[in-house]
């Protein structure tokens, strides 16, 4: 199977100043790929450039063999859905209203929702377990429920690939797991290719098939969690000292940081 998306020599940044430089990537179709790295490393810049939210300074992003930055906007929106960080719905918008916005790429300027649109909206609400909250205002939902509503809107676009920038930001641990388990379920059951940015390294390991570690705007490591999660990689990319052990239940790597590189770890002893 050919890569669904290929990134070739991508450089991107702001005001002409590159943050991401010479970035190459083949996004595995039907898998969950997560970009990891420190603050300012270029993770979000990569995601924005790959999803056409940011124009590249150099290089090309190919979506199904076509340059994504030369494709018509509506065609891109029919193939790729993006959930930016910290999305906010206008006041008074219900969950169903929000999810209906996801059908915009398939509608003409003056057309209303078709029977097909309504069918897809109902499907997206069902997939995210939001049907029972469809008529509730978005601003009356919990953080986890709001994220489910936004994911339902993205699903209503009926794309094969979903991009998410820090989808668990500001959520407590229970809601973080709820959102990540939903994305994993959509990937397994609906075949949606997921590309996301996560700060929590252990969550990235737990919910990803493929990890891409970015340092100083360049791709330093890429592979499965078991392939790239090592004390050496954590020291190189994150500048931390850590032990890597196997999860006693899931059998995957778990990172146990114990200090910043170059600083002595002082243990606390109880007398």
Q: Explain this structure to me?
A:
The chain has 271 residues and is an alpha/beta fold. It folds into two domains: 5-228, P-loop containing nucleotide triphosphate hydrolases (Rossmann fold); 231-271, no CATH class. The chain has nine helices and twelve strands. The strands form three sheets. The chain has a six-stranded mixed β-sheet, with helices on both faces. A four-stranded antiparallel β-sheet has the order 2-1-4-5, with helices on one face. A hairpin with a 2-residue loop joins strand 9 (210-215) and strand 10 (218-223). Helix 3 (95-101) packs parallel to helix 5 (143-156), helix 4 (115-127) runs antiparallel to helix 5 (143-156) and helix 5 (143-156) packs parallel to helix 6. The radius of gyration is 20 Å and the shape is globular. The termini are far apart.
Task: For the record, give the distance between the C-alpha atoms at the N and C termini, rounded to a whole number.
Answer: 61 Å
Strands of the widest sheet, in order across it, are 6-7-8-3-9-10
Radius of gyration: 20 Å
What's the mean pLDDT score? 92
Strands, count? 12
Please state the overall shape, judged from the principal axes of the Cα atoms.
globular
Helical content, roughly? 25-40%
The tally of domains stands at: 2
What is the number of helices? 9
Largest sheet: 6 strands, mixed
Report the sheet-strand fraction.
25-35%
What is the top-level CATH class of the largest domain?
Answer: Alpha Beta
CATH topology group of the largest domain: Rossmann fold
Oligomer: single chain
Order of helices and strands: EEEHEEHEHHHEHEHEEHHEE
């Amino acid at each position: 199977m050919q890569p669904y998306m290929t990134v070739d020599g991508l450089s991107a940044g702001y005001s002409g100043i590159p943050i991401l430089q010479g970035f190459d990537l083949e996004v595995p179709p039907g898998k969950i790929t997560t970009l990891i790295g420190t603050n300012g490393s270029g993770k979000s810049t990569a995601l924005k450039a790959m999803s056409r939210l940011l124009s590249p300074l150099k290089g090309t992003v190919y979506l199904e063999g076509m340059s994504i930055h030369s494709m018509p906007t509506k065609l891109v929106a029919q193939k790729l859905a993006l959930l930016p960080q910290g999305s906010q719905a206008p006041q008074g918008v219900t969950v169903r209203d929000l999810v209906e916005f996801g059908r915009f790429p398939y509608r003409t300027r003056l057309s209303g929702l078709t029977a097909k649109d309504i069918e897809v909206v109902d499907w997206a609400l069902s997939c995210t377990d939001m049907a029972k909250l469809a008529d509730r205002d978005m601003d009356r939902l919990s953080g986890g429920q709001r994220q489910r509503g936004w994911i339902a809107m993205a699903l209503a676009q009926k794309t094969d690939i979903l991009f998410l920038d820090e989808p668990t930001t500001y959520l407590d641990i229970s809601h973080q797991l709820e959102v990540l388990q939903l994305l994993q379920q959509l990937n397994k059951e609906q075949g949606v290719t997921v590309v996301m940015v996560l700060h929590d390294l252990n969550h990235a390991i737990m919910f990803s098939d493929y990890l891409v570690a970015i340092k100083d705007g360049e791709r330093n490591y890429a592979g499965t969690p078991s392939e790239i999660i090592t004390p050496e990689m954590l020291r190189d990319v994150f500048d931390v000292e850590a032990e890597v052990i196997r999860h006693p239940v899931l059998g995957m790597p778990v990172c146990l940081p114990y200090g910043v590189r170059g600083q002595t770890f002082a243990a606390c002893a109880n007398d």
